[in-house]
Amino acid sequence: MATTSEPADRLTAFGNQLVDVHLWLRSGLDTFLSGAGDRPRELRAHCLAFCSALTRHHTAEDGGVFPALAEAHPELRPVLDELARDHVQVEEILVRLQALLDGLPAAPDAPLGTEEARRVRGELDGLIALVESHFTYEEKKLVAALNRLAVPLPEDFALRDLTGR
User: Fold this and answer.
1) Other CB atoms closer than 10 Å to residue 29's CB: what's the count?
2) Tens digit of each residue's pLDDT (9 = 90 or more) over 90-128
3) Residue 39 CB burial class (10 angstroms; 0-12, 13-18, ≥19)
């Protein structure tokens, strides 16, 4: 039994890291929703922070995590394909949300109009529903396999790379 910290020791925690990243992203989404208020500049700033972190996480999964899992666990390929399709849908919402926010008034203190607020809230509600179901499904289907994975994963997958910790 090894007592030193070998790379394989760290690899057993990838499933746990996935849950940690999802918790951090959920918290970021909550911050986006509660802290942005109805000012376009604040909404754009919160969107930039949250949306870029979510995109970076999904890009790491699509580019490194999912291929590694598919290689090690071919039975997960249908699940991984479904999760990758979710990533496309999430990105489509993020693009629509960003375009909507970019079209809002440029005045720093101008509040959203009623119609603008309804459209922003609609996109956010869709994002919340999709992200929450995606995270829950991904955790249910992948945590155990990730914890057994014995290959390196992309650095962007780790929580510290998303949060700076």
Assistant:
1) 20
2) 999 999 999 998 888 777 677 778 888 888 889 999 999
3) middle
